[in-house]
Structure formats: structure tokens, C-alpha cells
Amino acid sequence: xxxxxxxxxxxxxxxxxxxxxxxxxxxxxxxxxxxxxxxxxxxxxxxxxxxxxxxxxxxxxxxxxxxxxxxxxxxxxxx
Length: 79
Description:
The chain is α+β, with helices and mostly antiparallel strands. Helix content is 41%, strand content 25%. It has one domain (2-76): Hypothetical Protein Tm841, Chain: A,domain 3. Strands 2-1-3 form a three-stranded mixed β-sheet, with helices on one face.
């Protein structure tokens, strides 16, 4: 989808070029089925060995964003 493409573009822009060690987290509000395709896309872009964890959004985030929302967090671990 367009939103997914835009989100992945933003992630690409924010991860410094040459980064070797990173982790990702996927959160969602009531749509656990989004985890697998996003995980596959992240691993396709950054390597099969990249760690990807997932979890439902917290109640506060879920209340504000609503059912169907999802997002990606990242952590660059290079020094």
C-alpha cells in the first residue's frame, strides 16, 4: 500500500548509510496479520538476520490511533 511504501521510505532515509547493526519493532492496533509482511519487507531490505520484534500497541497509543494502526520503530546499534 501507499502508506507502507511511504513508511519504509522514511525508515530508509533515517537509518544512516553504512549501518551494519540494527533492530526493528513493529506495533499494531488489532491487526497482528500486518507483522509478517512488514517483517519480510524489513528483512528483505536489511538482511535476513535483522532482529524484528512485534507487540500490540499500548492502550494509550491504541486509544489515540484506533484499530488498524501500525508502525515501525528502529534502533541503530553501530557505534
